[in-house]
Amino acid sequence: MNLCLLCDKHDAMGGYLCPGCTKATVVRLECLPGLYDGLLPFLAPSTAVGQGRSGKGGPAPLPVVESILDLRGVMVGQLEDWLSAVRQERGMRGPRQGGVDGRLAGAVSGLLRNMPWIAVSWSQAGAFAEEIRDLARDVKSIVAPAVDEVRGTRVGNCQSVDVSGAICGAVLRLVPGDRVVHCDWCGMNWPPATWAQLKTWIDESPGLSHPPVIVSAP
Q1: In terms of pTM, does the model score above 0.90?
Q2: Are strands 181-182 and 171-174 parallel, antiparallel or unpaired?
């Protein structure tokens, strides 16, 4: 019995990816250029001041958010590595693409052209499809996070600092229809321009996974 290497379900077609997982992988590949472009607004560092954290006394901030820049580089690198592996397996050569954006588009285009062969004939199809799925999910979580229609999207813990230097830590949620993340506990507002910096601070504060006060959005 042939099993799909991604979903582990029986594949009557006898390939390495079932038709459903093949189609899903194609859709994810097609979405990657748009997700890559969607990260562009998050490259600009936050200029938020006041209640938010301050960089006083520290080094000058980078002109871009390094984590987002790295993620865009990872996207290009992973896609090019997979296309290179496919071409090597098939004894193919391909033209070099100029510019990072052109390289990503070229890698996606090349992989899409090879999807019929990947799904049916390539033993690495499962690992490839899984990495494309995870990559699309990770980028989409930044560009277009899933929405909880009742409580809103859970953003993380509020990073507002009071006069004593303590971090608020209350749970932040983006309510459907709102364009600003509001902390019901301390009153801090986090507009879209601050979200990339807010995410960086949240990632740097894993100990705030259980804040002292949790206030759900109405």
Answers
A1: no
A2: unpaired
